[in-house]
Amino acid sequence: MASVAPDRCERTLARSLVAETLGTGLLLAAVVGSGIMAENLTDDGAVQLLCNTLATGATLFVIILLFAPISGAHFNPAAGLAYVFAQVAGAIAGVWLAHAMFGEAVFALGVKPRAGAAQWLSEAVATFGLVLTILGTANRSREAIASAVALYIVAAYWFTASTSFANPAVTLARSLTPTFAGIAPMDAPAFMAAQFIGALAALTCSYAVLRQPD
Amino acid sequence: MASVAPDRCERTLARSLVAETLGTGLLLAAVVGSGIMAENLTDDGAVQLLCNTLATGATLFVIILLFAPISGAHFNPAAGLAYVFAQVAGAIAGVWLAHAMFGEAVFALGVKPRAGAAQWLSEAVATFGLVLTILGTANRSREAIASAVALYIVAAYWFTASTSFANPAVTLARSLTPTFAGIAPMDAPAFMAAQFIGALAALTCSYAVLRQPD
Amino acid sequence: MASVAPDRCERTLARSLVAETLGTGLLLAAVVGSGIMAENLTDDGAVQLLCNTLATGATLFVIILLFAPISGAHFNPAAGLAYVFAQVAGAIAGVWLAHAMFGEAVFALGVKPRAGAAQWLSEAVATFGLVLTILGTANRSREAIASAVALYIVAAYWFTASTSFANPAVTLARSLTPTFAGIAPMDAPAFMAAQFIGALAALTCSYAVLRQPD
Amino acid sequence: MASVAPDRCERTLARSLVAETLGTGLLLAAVVGSGIMAENLTDDGAVQLLCNTLATGATLFVIILLFAPISGAHFNPAAGLAYVFAQVAGAIAGVWLAHAMFGEAVFALGVKPRAGAAQWLSEAVATFGLVLTILGTANRSREAIASAVALYIVAAYWFTASTSFANPAVTLARSLTPTFAGIAPMDAPAFMAAQFIGALAALTCSYAVLRQPD
User: Fold this and answer.
1) String of b and e for D1-25 (b: at least 16 CB within 10 Å)?
2) Residue D42 is part of a domain; what is its CATH number?
3) In chain A, whose CA is at the least distance from the CA of B32?
4) Rounded to whole angstroms, what are the CA distances from A34 to A47, A59, B131, D60, D205?
5) In 10 A of CB C93, how many CB atoms?
6) Dihedral angle at the C-alpha atoms of C24, C53, A56, A160, nearest 10 degrees?
7) In this structure, what DSSP letter does residue C104 have?
């Protein structure tokens, strides 16, 4: 029996890492790929973001439903640092996969400047709301969690000036694409800092103010 | 024991007030922010309203799911006057947050004229339907309530000439933005009056006609 | 006791009639109102129909969830003839309400020609699918029924050449609007005939072929 | 008793074949019909694909909910080869029905070239994700499966360069339409090969890596 438990443990950790890598990879393939598709098909900026929003929200619902029972479906260092290497690796692979699927150069750097106080405030607010949504639905059904997180991001793509990256691993990976969803690498660290501030604020708010009285 | 109950009571009231403020704030940030984003990205009025609709509906689903167990997730004086100050404060803060996230002047007044019999009828009908939806789903699961309220507003944004403010606190706060979702301050009181008439009609209809026989 | 039952019966019938009238009225207000709003805001025909689709689908979800426990939420003579007068009255009132909310002349006739074999085939197919959806989800939860019917109509607005009226009471009422969602009165009877043929085909298919073996 | 079982068996098989034919037929009518409608109404390529996406996703939700208890709601040889003839027959009938509903020539061939490594990678990835979604939600409620599959395809229409055919029977049938959703017949076999490779990869990944430890 003693020899079984470690093995199961390892297999479970391995499965979790695969799940976090695959899920974050699919998420980035969707974010970047749908941005390329949208830019190819229309010049209307709102329609482009609408298509990008739809693909991102739908993908989030699916990957949360699929991978929650395996790894918890985090896909985001701001929601727990345990899987950060798997998430970053998956995210970068997802960007490259999107490039390959659309016949673009696989390796590239982001070019879109995204900086300034308004952008950073947007990222802090976006991540605050995302982490609040995750903490506030933790006891609900998996379908409710998946719907809430997906719809939160659908909304936040539109109500923040930064289109809600809200995820440090996603931000890092999006600094590797010159397409619609990209960010200039030099602008990425400030985004990540703002995201951690937003996540911290949500944790504080949730545990200090909103949690059920004992 | 006697000293615990009041404390829990206060903490519960405090948590409810925070929940109503946060929820209404997020709602207004979404309504106003997505309107600014949409106006920045396209000149097509229908696409603008579509984006505004999507962000509003998605946010409503999320905030109802999140805050229903804490405060009941009203966010609307027409659905119960208990939290009116928290709702107004949250709503105004949400408008200002949206302005800040998009780098607009934080303090401003609405400029869009919204008046006349057709607009007032629209607000009465919009609020009638919203309150009917709230009352008619009271015994359903939280997910069903959140879906129904969100989808009702999604529809009502389109089938009323006023785009369904349907909420006096929201109306007041939207008189403080000159952007897509704004309303001229002088037009706000008539909107609120029409909303209370619609809410009253829904209460009457629901309790006198539709309620289950005893 | 004997005197209670009839009273409850009458109250239940009255409540059902109010529910069918209100529900069909809201549905038509949404169909016609969102069509007017969309035509006012864009010249892109696909965006117009997209907006009309969204409002119709969202409204269907809400009214089915709201009125199913009261009247069964039919809103359609093709799904049961019991409430046909309430449905027609509600549908016409809904069209007039939409006109009033948008400041249009309340009384009017449809002008859009919708005729020919392709249109009639479309209506038969649309109603076939709608009735199949209703029959096939009868044992599911109310939320599942509401989602399925709403999403069926969302799809059918797009995959039929007639944009899926699929409802004789709705067709009659839409012959009273010269706006986006209207139909010329002389074209309405053939639509209704096609709808009944489609409904009959679905009933036959469902009971003869698809029903569970005893 | 012995004479009842075979009869029930036959009836159940017949019902399954009808369900797979009807479901795949409705799916193709939706895919092709909404493509024709979208091309008729707008010149904006992104809006066209958005409409096509909406109709396809909504139809998938409905047919999975309807036919899952009868045949398992496969509609796709990549998800099990048992019903391949019914699926192909239904798919072709659906294409022809869409042509008839829009007054187009019923019999035709696809003309849109879809070939090259990027397209084939797209189909392999699209089918990989679809089969992973199907396997990963097998133990969830029917509503969750229907939502996950529909939303996966909604996303994949946008994040793959091929708009995710992800289904050999669908690919074959879409080689019979010269409209928006079509594919040139000579390009179909490579799509199908890529789809089977993607399906096989998903099966391997799911059983070797992701399955629950015993």
Assistant:
1) eeeeeeeeeeeeeebbbbbbbbbbb
2) 1.20.1080.10
3) A159
4) 12, 11, 38, 20, 25
5) 18
6) -80
7) -
* Distance of alpha carbon A39 from alpha carbon D47, whole angstroms: 12
- Domains in chain C: how many in total? 1
Please state, in angstroms and rounded to a whole number, the distance separating the CA atoms of residues A113 and A111: 6
Which residues, 6+ apart, have CB-to-CB distance to B164 below 8 Å?
B122, B123, B126, B130, B153, B156, B157
D182-208 burial: b if 16+ Cβ within 10 Å, else e: bbeeebbebbbebbebbbebbeebbee
Query: A213 Cβ partners below 8 Å, 6+ apart?
Result: B8, B11, B12, B15
Please write the tens of the pLDDT for every residue from A169-203: 999 999 999 999 999 999 999 999 999 999 999 99
* Interatomic CA distance for residues A201 and A203, integer angstroms: 5
Q: Give the Cα separation of A74 and A131 in Å (integer).
A: 11
Which residue is associated with the tokens 């607010």? A125
Put simply, the chain C residues between 50 and 79 with a CB less than 8 A from any chain B CB are 50-52, 54-56, 58-59, 61-62, 65-67, 70
Residues of D in contact with C125 (CB under 8 A): 29, 97, 101
Asked if D124 and D194 count as a contact pair (C-beta separation under 8 A), the reply is: yes
Question: What is the model's pLDDT at position D11?
Answer: 63
Place of tokens 């699918």: C129
Task: List pLDDT tens digits, range A98-127.
Answer: 999 999 999 999 999 999 999 999 999 999
Q: Is the dihedral of CA A209, A211, A212, B1 positive or negative?
A: negative
For residue C101, which residues of chain B lie inside 8 Å, CB to CB? 118, 121-122, 125, 159-161
Question: Mind giving me the DSSP string for A159-201?
Answer: HSTT-----HHHHHHHTT--STT---GGGHHHHHHHHHHHHHH
Looking at chain D, how many residues does it have? 214
Domain with B191, as residue range(s), is 4-210
The ipTM estimated for the assembled molecules is 0.92
Interface of D with A in 143-182 (CB under 8 A): 143-144, 147-148, 151-152, 154-155, 157-161
D140 touches chain C (CB under 8 A): no
**Nearest CA among D161, D1, D31, D164 for reference residue D92:** D31
Residue-level pLDDT, tens digit, chain C, 214 residues: 344 444 555 668 889 999 999 999 999 999 999 999 999 999 999 999 999 999 999 999 999 999 998 999 999 998 878 899 999 999 999 999 999 999 999 999 999 999 999 999 999 999 999 999 999 999 999 999 999 999 999 999 999 999 999 999 999 999 999 999 999 999 999 999 999 999 999 999 988 877 754 4
Q: Please check whether residue B61 is in contact with residue A147, taking contact to mean a CB–CB distance below 8 angstroms.
A: yes
